[in-house]
Amino acid sequence: MRQEGSLAGRHDDAPGLPRGRSSLPADEVRAAQRQRLMSATVAAVAAEGYHAITVADIVRGARVSKAAFYVHFRDKEDCFLATTAYGGNLLVDAVIGATRSLPPDAEPAEILRAACRAFLRFLADEPAFARVFYVDMPAAGSGAVNRMDAAQHRFAELNRSWHRHALSRHPDWPSVPYDAYLALAGATTELVSVRVRHNHAAELPELEDTLVALHMAVLAAQRWPEMP
User: Fold this and answer.
1) 2-72, superfamily in CATH?
2) CB 148 within 8 Å of CB 138
3) What is the pLDDT of residues 134-154, one digit of tens each?
4) Whole-model pTM?
């Protein structure tokens, strides 16, 4: 489970959650059920693909009852979308947390680098989730595609927010249309997806310099660094 990341896990050999009367509050049991179901979904989808798995596969991996599954989710798609949204929020939190840990007077380029590093490190540490998000999500139906589009816009907005802050420090940098931010989010997705599809998620941190240079070329009009 560790090698696939903390967001993926099967609980076949773990003890089941208490049923009926127990010392655990009901809300804690429900929260544990939901967490197990989501981690089992990541593990199952990463291993077999979204279309190959069933609700039965998820509940077996989570070691909860099918009735418990339907307390939390309407169907497999609902569970999948909730699971990817949860992981996506953790990814964004990691990126924002990395930038907020810097000194208030940090240079925009330093902030950008911290964000790119946190983004790539999170995905490298969560290879199963990375596969689910970048490989299975685009093929999981219209609901998932819409969520993927929303994620692209979310990262475009983060790019725009960073750029606006940077322009206050560097007014000579160019102003760009929103589509430029969206294009950078799309380019980042493609660079990540290629590696994840070929099971090279561990190599994602090697993209840090490329992502920083790409963003600085478009948003700061800086020349690409000299190749070694």
Assistant:
1) Homeodomain-like (1.10.10.60)
2) yes
3) 999 999 999 999 999 999 999
4) 0.91
